[in-house]
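Attaching the record inline, Q. Sequence:
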Amino acid sequence: MGTKVKVSKDVASKTILKWLDFKQVDDEKREEQESSIKTMVNAVVYGNLIMDDKCNFIYNLKFPLEDEGGSVVLDKLKFKPRMKTSEADDKMKNLKNPSTYEMVRCFTAALTGENMGTLKLMDSEDTRVVNAISSFFL
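Structure, as predicted:
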């Protein structure tokens, strides 16, 4: 996420709670996903995760993806706050016995509109935050 604090932990926590409330995530799921919530709060603190006025998360990659020529091909992901199950099903239809990682990547692709092959190329630090967000849709 970076080394410079952009937002206080209190403000970051309120941002994530607002998103969880908007999604109507119940207390049980919040407890189960405590680690994901902490990851998301930290991403907000360091300025990599931002929520717009429509409760879309925008995640600015710590390690943008570049093509062979060094041009940036992916530097941020915009997550919609709601998703129909059929959207993820469409991404999974060609996978036989998908691993947990592949399933989460399918949900991420459905949430962001990004290609699954591109998502597979992200750095593990970026993937950790992206998976934390996507886990609330599983």
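The mean pLDDT is 94. The radius of gyration is 15 Å.

More tomorrow.
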